[in-house]
Each structure stands twice: as structure tokens, then as C-alpha cells.
């Protein structure tokens, strides 16, 4: 991931008026509007009395290829979900996500039984979710100037990025699609879908829009792929390469999982790129506990860093203990822990 | 904190390798650090588990209650490890993969293993009753076995 600084030669528009003056961005806005219309995300209605609308805005990003060159310009319309009120605009927001533990179990099995691992990606994921609640949204900033729509608002039919209930709506839609293909939702992990057929098994795991398929039934895998392509707009599937920033590579020795690319970013961010390497993550005789005369340090920064380390420990069991120690001081920390 | 980052700097390419070991088993290892916290005297325990010889899950966490003996700390750790093994077994069963042998949980504390096998309530362990019954039940169902490993 490149930072904004490294992209300084590309200007990211701050609003849609600015974006529409640049053909590349205008194209991205059009693309997103077409996707929204194709999915019939909303209907234009007059706002019923007593109802309130929530705002929306455009977010612009530049997507890069792995070599750092520009992949595409992306414009996304997001709802200002933070203005939604509980019980009025939304009720349930919980959506399950896959545990990386389950992924590792699947990878271990796939290695031993030489099952293929395939990766899927759904385009405009959240726009597929059906919205149960009645939510009204302001017109997107790009449509407001047209006179015929001026007095109208959008009554949302599909979940939009930014809404509180979007992940849940998407997962509900997806799991009912999977159930329709006779897949059973696992009890041990709700995002794992399994199908047994003629003594063969197919397993499918989903983390919002990151999906992994494995099993010993190639015909069923092909069928599922077609089913999903019919139900959702999919990017063409391929071999599993990345899952949630974890790099997955398959070789004659087996499958390796690493977060190699995450590390330099972390070290650069913390200014530790030139530090002296240590052979162990922790002092052998470290003492835990709260000591007097400790000078408080920047709490937010510390918590953020611990979060990054926890994410990193997904492929680094060697730092698990050290991370568990540093995370015990999230609420009340002092400088000498930070130095440890 | 800086130490962790320095360690990471020295070991940037490390990751997990899943390979074919030709074994089909679920195994776990547990250990505990009795009263490791100088202030609260709480213990830290951890486990890691292998499916077919590949590391899949691991965990290290300070225990929520104070343990009165090292065996008790280990014992709590074992109970956590047993839970994890049972969860893994459930996932695998749902995938249609069954193991006939009991799962193994390795532990380096003989006292804890004896307590697990022994139905007698000791004076010094009567307060860890729930974990004890839980582990004993899994042992009796032949779901789990506890071999002893020498600590390093």
C-alpha cells in the first residue's frame, strides 16, 4: 500500500465537482453510478413527513497494482452511517467474519490432501445486500443540480457502503444464496459453508468479500463458481494468493503464509527501519507489573501499535507471547514498557 | 515494545509453512507460567495446536484468576487447550474428516496430569472443580490423552 505522499503526482479530488472536471475521475464516478443503478440501489421518492435523510459523499482512491503502477481510479458513493440513529435507522448490525484459525485449518488439510485453493471476489460487495429497514438518503452530490430530481430523495433498497447495517445485510444475502445451493453453514464457524456429496466435500469460507474455496470435488467447485457468478457480479477467480493481507504461496514443500509486505510498512511508520535487530522478541528476565515513577507515554499511538502487532501475529506465533504482554498495558501504560 | 520491533526487523521473512507430514492427528501443547505477574500474581498460560503436523492455532494469555499452585495454573491452561482441541475437532468433523485416535495434549506438569486422571478431590484442588470435571469428562470419553513432556 502506498501512502498519499508517494502518490503526490496524482491529485485526489476533494469533492465531486472537482472530480468531474478530470476525465479519469469523471469516468470513475460514472462507473459507480452505473453500478448503483444496475443494482437498483434506490428509488427516487419524495420524503415522507416525519422522516429524515442521511447524508452521503464521494470517496476517491487510486488503486495500485502490486508493482506500484496505477491499476484504476475508483470512486465510491458512501452513506454517512455515523448519522444513523439506533432503533430508528437500524437495529441489528452484527455480521460474522471468518476466524483466521479456520483458514489455517483448511490450509493444513488442503496441503495434506492436495486440494486446490481458489480465491473469489465479489464486485461492489455491499450493494448486493437487501435492506430491511426504511432508510432515506440525500441525493448524491453529482445528481443534485438536475432540476427534475431536486425535490426527491433516495429510498434505499440495497445496502450502501457506510451504512451501519450493510455488512449484516450482505452476509444475510450471501448465506441465503449459499443455502440455496445446498450448502450447510458450519456450527463451529458461521462463515464456513460445507457441502457433502457422493463422499466428497467442498468447503467455502467468506470474510466479507474475500472468499476461499477448497475441497476434493472439482465438479462441484466448478458448479458453485457458475452459481455464484450468476447470482453476483464476480471478479474472475484464481489461485489463492492473498487473504486479508496474508500472502499465500504454494510450492513443492507446501503452502506458506506470511505478512512479508506488512513488516517494512510497520518499521517505517515507527521509525525503526534502521534499528539494531534483536534475536528474541523479549528480554528473558522481564518483570511484569506496574512500577512506581513511570512516565506516561502517548496512549493512542501505543494502542494503535499493539493493534498492528496483533494483526501481525496471525502469521507470527513467535511474537504471540510478547504481544500478549504488551497488550496488558493498553489502558495504563508507562514509558519503560514501551522501551522494553 | 521496541524490542518486538527490533526482533521483527531481524526476522522479516518469517511466516507459516504448511507442509505434508504424512501424519493425521490433532495435537496440542500447553504450558503455564505460575504467578508471573509481579503485581497481581496471576499466571500466564498458553497453548498451540497442530493439525496433521501443521501449526494452526496458538494462544497466550494472562489467566483471569489467581492460581494457588503451579499445577493449578497448568491445569487451567490445559482446560483452555482442551476447548481449542474440541473446537478444531468439530470443524474437521463437519468437513467429514474423522480421527479415530484420541487427541493428544502435551503438558509438562505431572501434578496437573495426575489431577486430570484422578477422580479424588484434593484439598488443594477443590476450588478448581469445574475445570477438573470438564477435563475428566473428556478423558473418560477417550477424546483426549495427556502424555507428559519434560520441560526444557
Write the layout of secondary structure elements.
The complex is a heterodimer of chains A (340) and B (152).
Chain A lengths: L15 H5 L2 H16 L3 E4 L7 E2 L1 E9 L5 E10 L20 H14 L3 E6 L7 E8 L15 E6 L7 H15 L3 E2 L6 E6 L2 E8 L2 E6 L2 H14 L2 E6 L2 E2 L2 E6 L2 E5 L3 H8 L29 H14 L7 H7 L8 H5 L1
Chain B lengths: L1 H9 L5 E3 L7 E8 L10 E8 L2 E9 L7 H25 L8 E5 L2 H8 L11 H12 L3 E2 L7
Parallel strand pairs in B: 2-5, 5-6
Antiparallel strand pairs in B: 2-3, 3-4
Helix pairs in contact in B: 2-3, 2-4
Describe this entry's structure for a reader.
The complex is a heterodimer of chains A (340) and B (152). Chain A has helices at 16-20, 23-38, 100-113, 166-180, 218-231, 262-269, 299-312, 320-326, 335-339, and strands at residues 42-45, 53-54, 56-64, 70-79, 117-122, 130-137, 153-158, 184-185, 192-197, 200-207, 210-215, 234-239, 242-243, 246-251, 254-258. By secondary structure, chain A is α+β, with helices and mostly antiparallel strands. Chain A folds into two domains: 5-251, no CATH class; 259-339, no CATH class. In chain A, the strands form four sheets. Chain A has a six-stranded antiparallel sheet with strand order 8-9-10-11-5-12, with helices on both faces. Chain A has a four-stranded mixed sheet with strand order 1-7-6-2. A three-stranded antiparallel sheet of chain A has the order 13-14-15, with helices on one face. In chain A, strand 3 (56-64) and strand 4 (70-79) form a beta hairpin. The two termini of chain A are 29 Å apart. The model of chain A is unreliable at 1-5 and 335-340 (pLDDT under 50). Chain B is an alpha/beta fold and 152 residues long. Chain B has a single domain (22-145), classed as 2-Layer Sandwich (Nucleotidyltransferase, domain 5). Helices cover 36% and strands 23% of the residues of chain B. Chain B has four helices and six strands; from the N terminus they run αββββαβααβ. Chain B has a five-stranded mixed sheet with strand order 4-3-2-5-6. The longest helix of chain B has 25 residues, at 70-94. The radius of gyration of chain B is 17 Å and the shape is flat. Strand 15 of chain A pairs antiparallel with strand 1 of chain B, so a sheet runs across the interface.
Amino acid at each position: 500500500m502506498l501512502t498519499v505522499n508517494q502518490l503526490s503526482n496524482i491529485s485526489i479530488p476533494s469533492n465531486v465537482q472537482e472530480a468531474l472536471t478530470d476525465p479519469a475521475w469523471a469516468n470513475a464516478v460514472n462507473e459507480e453510478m452505473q453500478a448503483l443503478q444496475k443494482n437498483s440501489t434506490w428509488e427516487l421518492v419524495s420524503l415522507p413527513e416525519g422522516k429524515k435523510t442521511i447524508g452521503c459523499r464521494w470517496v476517491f482512491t487510486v488503486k495500485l497494482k502490486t508493482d506500484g503502477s496505477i491499476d484504476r481510479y475508483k470512486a465510491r458513493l458512501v452513506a454517512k452511517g455515523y448519522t444513523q440513529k439506533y432503533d430508528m435507522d437500524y437495529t441489528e448490525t452484527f455480521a460474522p467474519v471468518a476466524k483466521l484459525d479456520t483458514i489455517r485449518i483448511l490450509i493444513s488439510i488442503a496441503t495434506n490432501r492436495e486440494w486446490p485453493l481458489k480465491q473469489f471476489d465479489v464486485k461492489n460487495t455491499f450493494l448486493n445486500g437487501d435492506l430491511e429497514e426504511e432508510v432515506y438518503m440525500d441525493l448524491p452530490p453529482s445528481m443534485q443540480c438536475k432540476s427534475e430530481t431536486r425535490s426527491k430523495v433516495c429510498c434505499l433498497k440495497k445496502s450502501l457502503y457506510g451504512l451501519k447495517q450493510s455488512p449484516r445485510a450482505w452476509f444475510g444475502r450471501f448465506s441465503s444464496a449459499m443455502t440455496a445451493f445446498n450448502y450447510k453453514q458450519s456450527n463451529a464457524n458461521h462463515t464456513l459453508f460445507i457441502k457433502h456429496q457422493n463422499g466428497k466435500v467442498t468447503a467455502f469460507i467468506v470474510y466479507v468479500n474475500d472468499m476461499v474455496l477448497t475441497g476434493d470435488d472439482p465438479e462441484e467447485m466448478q458448479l458453485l463458481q457458475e452459481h455464484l457468478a450468476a447470482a453476483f457480479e464476480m471478479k474472475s477467480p484464481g489461485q489463492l494468493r492473498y487473504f486479508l493481507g496474508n500472502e499465500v504461496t504454494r510450492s513443492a514443500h507446501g503452502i506458506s503464509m506470511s505478512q512479508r509486505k506488512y513488516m517494512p510498512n510497520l518499521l517505517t511508520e515507527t521509525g525503526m527501519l534502521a534499528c539494531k535487530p534483536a534475536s528474541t522478541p523479549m528480554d528473558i528476565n522481564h518483570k511484569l507489573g506496574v512500577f512506581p515513577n513511570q512516565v506516561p507515554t502517548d496512549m493512542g499511538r501505543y494502542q494503535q501499535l499493539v493493534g498492528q502487532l496483533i494483526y501481525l501475529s496471525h502469521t507470527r506465533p513467535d511474537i504471540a507471547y510478547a504481544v500478549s504482554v504488551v497488550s496488558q498495558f493498553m489502558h495504563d501504560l508507562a514509558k519503560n514498557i514501551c522501551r522494553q | 515494545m521496541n524490542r518486538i520491533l527490533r526482533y521483527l526487523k531481524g526476522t522479516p521473512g518469517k511466516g507459516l509453512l504448511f507442509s505434508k507430514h504424512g501424519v493425521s492427528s490433532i495435537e496440542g501443547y500447553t504450558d503455564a507460567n505460575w504467578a508471573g505477574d509481579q503485581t497481581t500474581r496471576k499466571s500466564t498460560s498458553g497453548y498451540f495446536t497442530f493439525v496433521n503436523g501443521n501449526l494452526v492455532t496458538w494462544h497466550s494469555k494472562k489467566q483471569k484468576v489467581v492460581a494457588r499452585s503451579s499445577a493449578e495454573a497448568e491445569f487451567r491452561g490445559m482446560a483452555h487447550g482442551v476447548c481449542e482441541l474440541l473446537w478444531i475437532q468439530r470443524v474437521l468433523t463437519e468437513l467429514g474428516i474423522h480421527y479415530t485416535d484420541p487427541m493428544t495434549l502435551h503438558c509438562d506438569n505431572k501434578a496437573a496430569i495426575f489431577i486430570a486422571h484422578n477422580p479424588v478431590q484434593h484439598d488443594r484442588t477443590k476450588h478448581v472443580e469445574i475445570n477438573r470435571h470438564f477435563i475428566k469428562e473428556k478423558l473418560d470419553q477417550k477424546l483426549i490423552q495427556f502424555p507428559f513432556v519434560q520441560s526444557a
